[in-house]
Design a protein that fits this description.
It contains 10 helices and 12 strands. It has 390 residues and is an alpha/beta fold. Strands 1-4-8-5-9-10-11-12 form an 8-stranded mixed beta sheet, with helices on both faces. A two-stranded antiparallel ribbon has the order 2-3. Strands 6-7 form a two-stranded parallel ribbon.
Length: 390
């Protein structure tokens, strides 16, 4: 029997110690926004960290009081009785540095100038985010996670956890991901970034001082990205070649087809809530992720120090991060003789399938978390960990 988490409350943790970044810079005096669901057990062995993808945040599940339609981005997966059952697990969602949803990002004051960082916010990587998350767990008193879970860019963080902090997780669950971006993926990101940077309202990334938002660029960036999240079949089934009106208007400027209307709607909505500098930072973090690079292109060598068990999931119609990319990871893990499970789900929805509640997909996730729960169930009675606010 599943139920909603109900209302949840975001929290914040402040860090005065600088966070060293792979670029050689450091992020000083920063705050991380996070949420927790469920109860931490007495020996703190049931914690699951959920890493977010490009345009998501720490708000993984539940709703905000007084805000209709504020369900978390993975509310169908996380909650009481759901595959990641908050009656059994203590779930943590954390917003990464550089985001625009609460953690310190480009719109916040640069301690060196007192003005918004804007384009001066340091470039961050997947590895930097993982290190920031580890510091949050230190503060929460969690030395080892039952699992780290993520989809897409979130899955890259989960994989990075297994390499950077191998002793701190027992299971890595990576959904709809890849060991690095293909040239085509990077090309899509670059076109999206150029759309933002060439928007007249971008002002070199310091648009906050001008009181404007480069919405035009954000709209186009989102439209480009959104196309890659869907499969050809799902777009055809939903929109086909349907016209917006009853007949062609023979216009090159106006909306003619329903798919155009849909993409413009998605772009408009995105430009109302997302930050342009954050989009640049996150897509660049995607570009940079390539753990094999430091090992001469040998992905198996990159995972050599991992200690956890792995679950990989991919979707047949995901052409952005195709099943073949997940199989590259599986092959590298098997080379190291790790405990690896892999599920390839025949789903029509493309990359976004990892956010949907396909019964076969959720059955895989439920079975995996049921198995993880058996590792700690029967241990001493639970205790409640209260969030440590700033």
């Amino acid at each position: 029997m599943t139920a909603s988490l109900g209302h949840v409350t975001p929290q914040a943790m402040h860090f005065a110690d600088p966070l060293p970044l792979r670029s050689g810079a450091a992020l000083r005096d920063y705050t991380l926004a996070y949420e927790t669901y469920g109860t931490l057990n007495a020996d703190r062995s049931n914690a699951v960290l959920v890493c977010h993808a490009l345009n998501a945040s720490h708000h993984v599940a539940g709703t905000y009081e007084g805000q209709p339609r504020s369900e978390g981005w993975w509310d169908n997966l996380v909650g009481p009785g759901k595959p990641l059952d908050t009656n059994r697990f203590f779930v943590i969602g954390v917003n990464n540095p550089g985001s625009c949803f609460g953690s310190t990002g480009p719109m916040h004051p640069n301690p060196d100038t007192g003005k918004p960082y804007g384009a001066d916010f340091p470039v961050v990587t997947v590895e930097d985010w993982v290190d920031a998350q580890a510091r949050l767990l230190d503060r929460l008193g969690i030395t080892q996670l039952a699992a780290v879970l993520g989809g897409s860019l979130g899955a890259m963080q989960a994989l990075s956890w297994s390499m950077r902090h191998p002793q701190r997780l027992r299971h890595c669950i990576a959904v709809a991901t890849a060991p690095n971006l293909s040239a085509q993926n990077i090309a899509f990101n670059e076109v999206a970034r150029r759309a933002i940077i060439t928007d007249p309202e971008f002002h070199g990334g310091h648009f906050y001082a001008h009181g404007v938002v480069p919405k035009r660029g954000l709209r186009v960036a989102r439209m480009i990205g959104h196309i890659t999240y869907l499969s050809d079949d799902s777009m055809e089934a939903k929109f086909g070649r349907n016209l917006k009106g009853e007949a062609p208007a023979y216009s090159t400027q106006d909306i003619e087809f329903e798919i155009e209307s849909y993409l413009r709607y998605q772009g408009d909505k995105f430009s109302e809530y997302f930050d342009a500098n954050t989009y640049l930072l996150i897509t660049r973090a995607l570009d940079y992720f390539d753990p094999a690079r430091e090992h001469g292109g040998n992905l198996a060598a990159a995972f050599a120090n991992a200690r956890c068990k792995f679950q990989l999931v991919s979707f047949t119609t995901d052409w952005r991060f195709s099943p073949a990319r997940s199989r590259e990871i599986v092959k590298a893990l098997l080379h190291n003789r790790f405990d690896v499970s892999y599920a390839e789900i025949d789903a029509p929805h493309g990359h976004d399938a990892f956010l949907l509640d396909d019964p076969r997909y959720h059955a895989v996730m439920r079975a995996r978390f049921d198995g993880i729960a058996k590792e700690f169930e029967g241990k001493p009675a639970a205790m409640v960990l209260k969030g440590i606010a700033v």
